[in-house]
Design a protein that fits this description.
The chain has three helices and no strands. The chain is mostly helical.
């Protein structure tokens, strides 16, 4: 406890300022790392949605080609697949407040 009583007031204030500066720098660095991770996760989700949409379009095209003109069956299949995709817990298109 004597360690806190020995230094002068100026030294105590300088030490307090130094510690708060270090804490601020660490907090900013942690925030930047978490921000980068959040962006990477969001891009991964968007890529997954795009890949799913592309595969759905390819499958729909194959269904149309295979059905030889029975387009209404392909649209029913696409509607059912879209409804299944709509139940995924992805929150795309929501505006993020900065």
């Amino acid at each position: 406890m004597q360690l806190l009583y020995r230094p002068r007031l100026y030294s105590k204030v300088a030490l307090l300022f130094l510690l708060s500066s270090i804490a601020t720098v660490v907090a900013i660095a942690m925030g930047a790392a978490l921000w980068e991770r959040m962006i990477d996760d969001r891009l991964h989700r968007y890529r997954a949605v795009v890949n799913t949409t592309v595969e759905l379009a390819k499958a729909l095209e194959a269904c149309v080609v295979a059905s030889e003109g029975r387009l209404h069956l392909a649209f029913q299949w696409a509607t059912a697949a879209t409804e299944r995709l709509g139940s995924l817990p992805l929150q795309l298109g929501r505006a993020q407040a900065a």
